[in-house]
Amino acid sequence: MAEKAADPAPARSGSRGARRRRREISVPGYASGADAPLRATAAALDRARHARSIVLVEGISDQIAVETLASLEARDLAAEGVVVVPVGGARSVSSFLARFGPAGAGLRVCGLCDAAEERHFCRALARAGFAPPESRSELEAGGFFVCDRDLEDELIRAVGPDAIEAILAEEGDLASFRTLQRQAAWRDAGFVDQLRRFLGAGARRKLRYAGLFVLALDPDRQPRPLRGVLSRT
Fold first, then answer.
1. How far is Cα 52 from Cα 208, in angstroms, rounded to an integer?
2. What pLDDT, on the 0 to 100 scale, is given for residue 20?
3. pTM of this structure
4. Tell me: the pLDDT tens digits for 162-188?
């Protein structure tokens, strides 16, 4: 975010430094770094040893979104025995369904999947001993909710451009986002695609903003898949 010219230099420097440090630190309570997906999955599997209910999601940003909404609803997932497990991509979901589902631990299992992976998810459920879903409504009846493109896309559309730009400004990232919007490769793209590119370009942006976008949601604008999966835990 552009600094006000009237501000004294030390204050500007301190403000930039604080924002820079905030951008660089990891998201508290979540794995970060090159091996973050593996460590996040391992940590969740350790917690799952004492779980009664499992929520399968693709990645850490999805985990953050689910757990942030649960916190907003004053739910303590750990106390309830609910564990959100990031599986490291939809193509890995089969082993987790087998591990926790009717052919494995027999726990209550629900989850989120991206629209492009819906058919794969249905086949994986059938192979793991779940009732084979023949439609999206049957998939949801079984506790598995499909995100339009993905959960990030759902959140961006639900929060909306004005609120998102206000969040970017508060986090000190709006100027960088404006730079991307002016780039030849992205100036003609839609807001959603521009923002997705911006979030994906920073090592920790996807993680930081997943929680911030959920916190910014009006209750009646919560994405249906996100709200639905929590209702099944």
1. 28
2. 44
3. 0.86
4. 999 999 999 999 999 999 999 999 999
| DSSP strands (E only) in the chain | 53-57, 82-86, 108-114, 144-147
For residue 107, how far is the Cα from the chain centroid?
Answer: 23
Mean pLDDT score, 125-131: 95
Nearest residue to 226 (alpha-carbon basis) of 144, 139, 165, 130: 144
Phi, psi of 112 (to 5 degrees): -120, 150
Tokens coding 80 = 């309830």
In this prediction, residue 203 carries a pLDDT of: 64
Amino acid (1-letter code) at residue 194: Q
Task: Note the pLDDT tens digit of each residue in 27-41.
Answer: 677 877 778 889 999
Work out the angle at residue 232's Cα, subtended by the Cα atoms of residues 126 and 112, and round it to the nearest 5 degrees. 55
Inform me whether the pLDDT recorded for 49 exceeds 70. yes
Q: Where are the alpha helices (DSSP H) in the chain?
A: 9-24, 36-48, 60-72, 77-80, 93-100, 118-127, 136-141, 151-159, 161-170, 174-182, 191-201, 205-216, 224-231
Q: Record the tokens describing residue 197, joined without a space.
A: 């590119």
Count of residues making up the chain: 233
- Tokens 């499909």, residue located: 146
Asked if 110 contacts 62 with a C-beta cutoff of 8 angstroms, the reply is no
Could you tell me whether strands 82-86 and 53-57 are parallel, antiparallel, or unpaired per DSSP bridges?
A: parallel
Question: Which of 43, 74, 77, 76 shows the shortest CA–CA distance to 60?
Answer: 43
Tell whether the model's pLDDT for residue 5 goes beyond 70.
no
Distance separating alpha carbons of residues 183 and 132, to the nearest angstrom:
46
